[in-house]
Specification:
61% helix, single chain, mainly alpha, 0% strand
Length: 64
């Protein structure tokens, strides 16, 4: 997992860290739309719902 994160294939961290990294990726790649996968692997339904809620409430407002 560390190698995947280091190569930038996934972005994980606190809401502020994720927002900062997403802004950087969008700027560096010159993109206006990002597709997100907020549930992956064997992540349970409750954790996926929490992850989605956290993204919507804490990360997305920083990107608009």
């Amino acid at each position: 997992m560390d190698a995947i994160v280091e190569k930038g294939y996934v972005i994980i961290g606190s809401p502020d860290e994720v927002a900062d990294r997403l802004r950087q990726v969008a700027r560096d790649l010159n993109v206006g739309h990002l597709m997100l996968l907020l549930q992956f692997g064997n992540m349970g339904k409750d954790l996926a719902a929490y992850n989605t809620k956290l993204f919507a409430e804490k990360v997305m407002p920083q990107l608009t």
